[in-house]
Amino acid sequence: MADVHEKQLEELLAHPSVWRGRSRAAVETFPTGFASLDAGLPGGGWPRHGLVEILTPQPGVGELYLLLPALAALSRLAPARWCTWVSPPHEPFAPALAAHGVALDRMLIVRTHLPLWAHEQALRSGACEVALAWLPRASPRAVRRLQLAAEQGRALGVLYRSQKYASEASPAMLRVLLEPTKHGARLRLLKSRGGTREPIDLTWAPAAAA
Amino acid sequence: MTHARQKSLFEPGDVSAAPSVLRVRPAPPPPTGPGSEGQAALELDPRELWVAAHVPHLSLHALPAGESGAPLVVLDEARNPRIIGADEKAQSAGVRVGMTLGAALAIAPDIDARPRDTARELALMQRLAGIAATFTPQVSIEAPDGLLLEIKPSIRLFGGLKELCRQLREACAADAVLARSGALPHFTLAPTALAALAAARAGARCFITDPRQLPARLKLLPVGVLRWDDDANTRLLGMGVRTLGDLLRLPRAGFARRFGPALLADLDRLQGRRADPRRRLARRERFRTRVDLDHEIENHDRILEVLRPLLDELEQFLRSRQRGITALQCRFHHYRAAPTTCALRLAAPEADAARLQSLLRERLANVRLPEPVRRCELRGGALTERPLASRPLWSPGERGHAPANEMPALIEHLRARLGAQAVYGIGCVSEHRPENAWRVTEPALAPVVSAADAGSVGLPFRRPPWLLHAPQELDSQRGRPRYGGVLELLAGPERIESGWWDGADARRDYYVARDARGARFWIYRECVGAGKWFLHGLFG
Predict the structure, then answer these.
(1) H/E run at residue B247
(2) What is the b/e burial string over B321-347, where b = at least 16 CB atoms within 10 angstroms of the residue's CB?
(3) Strand arrangement, sheet containing B186-190
(4) Contact B425 A107 (CB under 8 A)
(5) Which among B448, B463, B517 has CB closest to A105?
(6) Could you identify which of A124, B290, B360, B410 might form a hypothetical disulfide with B377, taking C-beta atoms 3.0 to 4.6 angstroms apart as the criterion?
(7) How far is B43 from chain A (nearest CA, A)?
(8) SS3 state of residue B209
């Protein structure tokens, strides 16, 4: 009898909408390209849709290398949706992206003084697989809007922000703090649905490592 | 007339015997006269059916309604003007078409004589042609007051010949502009274009599909309906020829000698012995409309409300042609200031009014109007092919969904608000100088198979994913570059020396450097001059 109840309970808990503290919730994911990161993230990779915040102490610490393997894989899907870069701080350097296997014809750069609006449009449109955005300021309410837009457009939204926002609450489904190390970076999952609490060390591919 | 004499007409060199390229049976048996009834029917091509629409008294209808109530006559543009139209009052006073103005004034001194308005006549006929073009693509205007439609291929689509003609008549009657001017056409149907036109001009009832009935139907029409020149008409009258029946009975050879091959060819066309291709009317290819406001408005939402009917009209215009536009211009006229223009450029052909309105709303948000708006004008760009597609079964992002027009829509939406330059794609250029090794491109809307850029994976040198807009000069301390603190050089140098031919000469040694906090930079030192250090990229 106890077995039957336990089984029913298991079935109930296996439902995707039930989220238990440290358990791995069923989310659609795709591999990050880094084995150690895949092991630490809930579901074994980046979420397929939703909002991810990447917090860095300063630009130039590997924030793009973290995503490039995923971008390369996604931009070569068939049929591939687009990757939109909303107000990046510098020019994305085409030869370097191509060298990492990113399909340049699926990249769209948007330069704007309205990054929040543009990012929301890109996420909501359904045309983008990924939309990266660099926002100087974003209130929790704005981030919440972006999270909803990403779910609606079934896109992965990536928000690059400064490390100083690490202590703020955020509605993003995944928050990653990135710190540079000698040959790579150390990641901490500030917020995740069932990810590891241990720091994750990454080493960049030889093409990227200095 | 002997058979031998008749044959001589068809010798080479004779214009009337020149073989027609279109639809004339090879080597027809020579007819005995221009209108020998028995044989003519056999040679008609029953593959065509023509509807003619003739607007009686078009020149009168084209004039604005007279307020005076005086008898109205219309004059042609000759130096000694003749009357080409007279209303009922003028006709009952004795004025006839063809009189000189002097003669008419002598009979009825109180007539209101006006010059004809050819532009408006043409506009009315074009309006009529626009309606006709919804029934068949083969529409031509027979200046000044006739219209020809070849309807044979459309019969099945419209559910039969009778039904098609009924719909055509109703569509013309329902048109507000035509109804207001009173220019309602008289319709006829015949197997040849000229026969239909002749019957329509005579105002005769004519609804024949069988070529054999044609001669009997034409017989009673007056010769004038062919609109030959006055000289020919006078001579025919002198010969006692008053109807088409009389005319067709004339000997062919004698007719050709007296009146020339051109008129003989006309008779052949009338009976279908000779091909009678008509040039299709080119339809208006740009959309333009405007609305004058009865009061001035400033509010953007009100302007959009005013524009909505214009956009609906544009949508109708485009849908009837299965076309779309990629550019739309909106002009707002003010009382004093120069007109404000608001241009919309679209990534893919569009015909949907609601979507255009939402794009205009984004675009208008950036437009500052110097004064209230008195008139709005809408100008569509060139029409382009608009591929028709069904709605997708899957929503974007779901498995099985094929990307449709979400991306063009997103690009338009962003560009409408941010400007065209703000949204772009990137591409590689084969060039050593990093600042020239990439370029801004138009976003590739058609998915490109990216075999070409996959080939560049084997780049022997490291390139940073971030490039600065312009190299940033770094401080240096005893020859060591500083950026925040002293930078540690990790790799390098890589010499890039290029561009002596285009004036942007570059001789640089590139290094990978790291600062104390672990961020890595791509820096270079000028090989010329003071050897300054510059920051050019970030290994982000």
Answers:
(1) helix B244-248
(2) bebbbbebebbbbbeeeeebebebebb
(3) B139-142, B146-150, B50-54, B186-190
(4) yes
(5) B448
(6) B290
(7) 59
(8) coil
What tokens does A200 get? 């994750």
Q: Would the ipTM clear 0.95, i.e. be above it?
A: no
In angstroms and rounded to an integer, the radius of gyration of the C-alpha atoms of chain B is 37
Check residue B264 and report its DSSP letter: H
Residue B51: its pLDDT value, please? 93
- CATH number, span B288-385: 3.30.1490.100
Q: B512 in helix, strand or coil?
A: strand
Distance separating alpha carbons of residues B99 and A200, to the nearest angstrom? 103
Cα(B358)–Cα(B416) distance, rounded to whole angstroms? 10
The answer to whether A95 contacts B407, with C-beta atoms less than 8 Å apart, is: no
User: Could A126 and B454 be called an inter-chain contact, meaning their C-beta atoms sit closer than 8 Å?
Assistant: no
Q: Which of A83, A90, A93, A132 to mutate to test the interface with B (most CBs of B within 10 A)?
A: A93
Chain B residues near residue A63 by CB distance under 8 angstroms:
540
How many angstroms away from the CA of B348 is the closest CA of chain A? 14
Q: Are B496 and B432 in contact (CB under 8 A)?
A: yes
Q: To the nearest whole percent, how much of chain A has pLDDT over 70?
A: 91
In SS3 terms, B305-370 reads as HHHHHHHHHHHHHHHHHCEEEEEEEEEEECCCCCCEEEEEEEEEEECCHHHHHHHHHHHHCCCCCC
Cα-trace Rg, chain A: 18
Q: What 3-state DSSP class applies to B47?
A: coil
Q: Which residue has the tokens 């955005």?
A: A133
Report the 10 Å Cβ neighbour count for A83.
28
Q: Give the global pTM.
A: 0.58
By C-alpha distance, which of B384, B391, B393, B392 is closest to B348? B384
Distance CA B10, CA A206 (A): 90
CA B192 to chain centroid, in Å, comes to: 28
- Cα B242 from chain centre: 43
Going by C-beta distance under 8 Å and a sequence separation of 6 or more, which residues neighbour residue B138?
Answer: B149, B150, B278, B280
Domains of chain A by start residue, with CATH: 27-203 (3.40.50.300)
Q: What is the pLDDT along chain B (540 residues), one digit of tens a residue?
A: 344 444 333 333 333 433 434 444 444 444 444 444 444 434 444 678 999 999 988 888 888 766 667 788 888 887 888 888 888 888 888 888 888 888 888 888 888 888 888 888 888 888 888 889 888 888 999 878 899 999 988 888 998 889 999 999 999 888 888 888 888 899 999 999 999 999 999 988 888 888 888 888 888 899 888 888 888 999 999 999 999 999 999 998 999 998 989 999 999 999 888 888 888 887 667 888 888 888 888 888 888 888 998 999 899 888 888 888 888 999 999 988 899 898 888 877 888 888 889 888 888 888 888 889 999 999 988 888 887 777 767 766 666 666 667 788 888 888 888 888 889 988 888 888 888 888 888 887 655 544 444 444 455 567 888 888 888 888 888 778 888 788 888 877 888 888 788 877 888 888 888 888 878 888 898 888 778 888 888 888
Q: Nearest C-alpha of chain B: how many angstroms from A2?
A: 40
b/e per residue B124-149 (b: at least 16 CB within 10 A): bbebbbbbbbebbebbbbbebbbbbb
**Amino acid making up residue A138:** A
- What's B64-116's CATH class? alpha beta
Q: What is the pLDDT of residue B455?
A: 45
Q: Are A61 and A183 in contact (CB under 8 A)?
A: no
Half-sphere exposure of B507 (CA within 13 A, CB side): 7
Contact call for residues B44 and B191 (beta carbons, < 8 A):
yes
CB contacts < 8 A (A, B): 194
Residue ranges per structural domain of chain B: 50-54+120-271, 64-116, 288-385, 461-538
